[in-house]
């Protein structure tokens, strides 16, 4: 069914081509900014900091202070004002009703994470990392594009495995930030709720299935990353309690950044096809558009800048 | 039904009395240790660091380095070895097969969080905070104990609201660590899975209910803490999509620590009654006991120390 071209007509915003064209599409600033670096992020800018380790500090008193995503978050504004007063150069990167408040506009859209993380890679002198990540993403795009039939397409296959089931999301400790990333992708693009188990999952799993063995949805567990000792125990607990356990692995020999971006990108492809299996348009819902309306640049000002 | 004493017979480990007697029960070290402080925590010791802000740093090169929970976690052992080599005094607090490896034994059990956080409060010179938290917990215990009938008992009432429904867990930003705490309590004690929405919940909620409007369980959302702007938007999205939204508020004028410990403790009471509504024993399952078996002090050594 996912190989039938009529299915792709559900995708009215052509998110498919945005996904396919994502690797290598970064067209933002590439200048290396002054060290040391501090960064805070809100809404679409928050995940970028959890999936990368280019920047360790939250706030710096010199060098470059990044504010990502919603640059008018009250907490974020306070923090960067402190950094600026202390002597740091502030970079406001994300969305704002006024373009004058931004050093670089990253429009809200389901794949903006890629722009934020590639921006950070370049700005912190890691352009080689950015290129390696693009190369890994490009290989995956070739395998996940619509014309690749389900039998050879890992994203279509995983989407079918999730269909009509509730996904539990688990990860080896070093992959933990991807749990929240997949929850957001499955919700925003895949139009589906999932159950993240991010903190000490064994404590929750030790009892969580006792009360309602048979009720509710069927369940499938995704385990992100090579299993560590904790995930091996999680597998043992889950084996008798849920329908299926599916490992989700990145290729070997990727850097931490390329690996995280690869698994995020795979989650986006899976979510795309999951929406299609449910006869849903994978584009942002009206709710998402309403939430983002506050961030849209005002038209008159927009004109004046063009 | 929860007011019927036969129901309490399900509770074979008498977790009820452990809960009721918890406020003021801390009987561990009270000595203030040398600053600065660093702390890492694993398994039962991890949540204590998310719910408190007595210690800001992860690793210190002088002063006192805490290792909480599973003191043989490989990552934790590496980190404290670095701290120790640099000159910090290490405090190993938690569980180990050998008591000789511990400065303070905190046996694994569903309420051990209280012991870890009160220990940290005393060790970092915040005994006043520990006493204030105890006072807040004591008032709550008086309202949640089994003899208080459902009409006056907030924990029994909330347990009924969660019964046969899937709880979504949300929180204002400053309460976010309580989301994972409640997930663990509802799983380990309440024998129920819940759906945490910890990171940028609006992104997930914007699409997450589209694909499967009517399928699966009924849903109820708990919003922990006084609602901030983000939670007010979350309420608006949820109102048309789930059965009920229930705010869970701490008393006013509590310190951050007392407030967090209060909401954790309330979650434990609710989970206790939730297990009873499902005819479950709220004590640790066999799975939890198996997971903890590795941490049990060996009997022979235990004897030799008595």
Automatic annotation (TrEMBL), chains A, B:
Residues 1-11 have a biased composition (Basic and acidic residues). Residues 151-290 form the Bifunctional glucose-6-phosphate/mannose-6-phosphate isomerase C-terminal domain. GO terms for molecular function: carbohydrate derivative binding; glucose-6-phosphate isomerase activity; mannose-6-phosphate isomerase activity. The keyword Metal-binding does not apply. GO terms for biological process: carbohydrate derivative metabolic process; carbohydrate metabolic process. Keywords: Isomerase. The keyword Isomerase applies. Transmembrane segments: none annotated. Residues 15-125 form the Phosphoglucose isomerase N-terminal domain. Residues 1-21 are annotated as: Disordered. InterPro entries: Glu6P/Mann6P_isomerase_C, PG_isomerase_N, SIS_dom_sf. Pfam families: bact-PGI_C, PG_isomerase_N. Belongs to the PGI/PMI family. This is Mannose-6-phosphate isomerase. The lineage of its organism: Bacteria, Thermotogati, Deinococcota, Deinococci, Deinococcales.
